[in-house]
Structures are given as C-alpha cells and as structure tokens.
Amino acid sequence: MKRIRLIDGLRAVAALLVLLSHVAFWTGASGQDVVGRLLARGDSGVAIFFALSAFLLLRPWFRHGLLDTPRPRPRTYAVRRLARILPAYWLALVAVLVVAALASSTGGTGSWPKVFAHVLVLQGLTGQTYQSFTQTWSLTTELTFYLAVPFLGAAASRALRSAGGVRTILARCGGLAVVGLALQGVAMAWTGAGSQRGAGVLATSIVGHGAWFAVGAAIAVTATARDAGRLPWRPDGRVMAWLRLLRSAGTCLLAALAVYVLAASPLAGPVDLTAPTVAEGVAKELLYALLAGLLLAAALVPTPAGSVAEAVGRHPATHWAGDISYGVFLWHVLVLQVIYLATGRPLFSGAFWWVLLPVLGLTTAVASLSAQLVEQPVLRRAHRRPAPVPAARE
C-alpha cells in the first residue's frame, strides 16, 4: 500500500505530546496555570497512537474485504509487529534496569516477578512499573490489540463482502466506542470505591480504550469504502456533507485545537494524580477520541502539489521524525530521570523550559541511535520477502 507521508508527522506529534506531558508533570508545571493544563493533556498522544494502530493495522483487512487485495498473512503480520515493538523496547528496559540498580532513590529493580513482567510487557496488567518506564503501560494495551487484529480483521473482511458491510463495521465501531466510554465510567466509579489494580486494568484495556481504537478503525473503513466506491450514503446526503467537511485539513486542525482546549478544561477532570469523577473520566476519554480522529483525518487529506502540507509530507525530516517517534516514546522518561538524578533536583521542581530543552535534545539523540542501530535493521529484516523457491526441473 502507498505510504501516507503525513502519518509520520502525526506519529512525531503524538510522541512529542507525551514527552511534554511528562516534563510538565516532573517539573510541577502542569499544576501551575492554564498553560500547565494544556501541557498536561499531552497524554492525549497515547490516544493518537492507538487510533493510528487501528487505522494502519486494520486497513489491509478492510482492503481485502472491499477491494479484494491479498489477504494479510498472520505469520508475516506477527513477525513484523514483534520486530516493531520488542527489540527497541528490550534495549530501553535494560537501560531502565541499570539506572534503577545504580540509583537506590529510584526504588531499585524490584523483585524478579516485576522484572519478568516487564520483559513480557505485562506491566499494564500488574500495575507495577519503574519510575522511568511508567509510560509503557500503553504497550501492554498495544500488544493485546496486536493479538486481536487478525481475528477482528478476518471477521471484518467477511462482513464487508456482504451487502451493507460498511454500515455493519461502522456500527460495530460505534458500539465499541460506547462500551469503552461506559467502561471508563465504571473504572472511575470503581476507583472511587477504593479499587486500584482492578480499576486501572479495566480503564487501560483495549476495551476500556475502545473509543480510541474505534475512531481509527472507523476512519480506515470509511477511507477504504471511498476508494472502492462503496460508501453507503447518497452523494447529496447529510453524512456525505460531513465527510466532505472532514476533507479540509484546516477545518480538522481547528476542530482538533478546540477539542484539545476543552480537554484541558475542568470538564475533563484534574491534571494531577487525583482520580476524576465518572463524568470527568468519560468526558476526557471522549475528547481524546475526537482529538485523535480529527488529527488522523487531517493527515489523510490529499495534499495538492506545491502546497505546504505536500512539502511537509515529502520532506526527509518528517520521515525521520516518524522513524524516531517510538524511540522518543520509549526513552524520554528515563532521560528525564537521569537528568534529575545528575542534578540532584527533587521531583516537582525545576523550570519547565530549562528541563525540556536537555530532555528533548538527549531523547532525540538516543532515539535516533535506536532507530538507526536497532529498529530499522530489525524491521528491514522482518520485511524482507523470502526468496521464491525454484521450480523443480523435470
């Protein structure tokens, strides 16, 4: 399939948002003013990552159902997904364990079950993690989604071959989103009743974050149906009018900005570790889903030749930023911790900008090395097609 160049830029935006939120939290800037609340909502980058995963991984199955392209091979898919996530993750985990072992103030490496859970990326289920690896709870959710994709994709491709298949898939996406929002409310209520691990596992599961995955899947099936000429709405209907509106990148970006500002308001609850109310938790989940969907829609808008968007999409820097985005996600909290250890600065102190600049610079450098020396070589090998078997001679 043709590479969508602005997706690389969107990956970089998601990673940068997550980095900003952690720097704001560690420096205490997130609780200071309106700008702090905006920075704190950078955790919405995780919703963008989840929506991107659903869009990119389910799209080949939707194309198989609607355009009769080759059926994705589960074995090839599994090898490529594991190659994408695990080698760089394990490298970062080794660094996290080394720092934890050398600096007792971090809490140490903990028990062997804790280490083993991290090796298997199960920390999102155990609730036990390292101070410099807290963001990787989302990888547990991602890997769970990866396991589900072949089953979800096969069912979706079958449904899309029948009449009304596009409507069926969109209805299922809507149902998943509603269930996810409801489970977020249940998790918030459960937290208020005193639960920690159970509520946390529910809230961060693929079903708990179903709205974030659903928006990516819905955009994928709609885009594929458009390419196949199978959109189930009248050209002059209200739904098509909304879809045409979403074909404007400027409109999508302005709407995304408005949604982000709403998410930074008290409507979406506190920005610290205080548990939100049921209404606040559901509102935050919904707003993050809308934000991810609008940004993804903006990235998919065709870019006219000579436009700024087209120049950004084809620029090597955009491709590079997408390549290092996973490394930025993996390494930035460890870099943040090392800087605090080296300077002896206590948590929740420090000027935001003076901490951000070295964190951003060092993280970019480490992520670039990770991409060049680990991620890209492993991915090239995983994507290498096996040589065809020579035909037997008679």
UniProtKB/TrEMBL annotation:
Alphabetically list the UniProt keywords: Acyltransferase, Membrane, Transferase, Transmembrane, Transmembrane helix
Which InterPro entries does its entry note?
A: Acyl_transf_3_dom (IPR002656), Acyltransferase_3 (IPR050879)
Query: Key word Amino-acid biosynthesis present in the record?
Result: no
Positions of transmembrane segments: 41-62, 82-103, 143-160, 169-190, 202-225, 245-267, 287-308, 320-340, 352-374
For this UniProt entry, the molecular function terms from Gene Ontology, in alphabetical order, are: acyltransferase activity
Concerning Pfam families, the annotation shows:
Acyl_transf_3 (PF01757)
Q: Where is the Acyltransferase domain?
A: 7-369
Query: How far does the signal peptide extend, from start to end residue?
Result: none
| Descriptive protein name | Acyltransferase
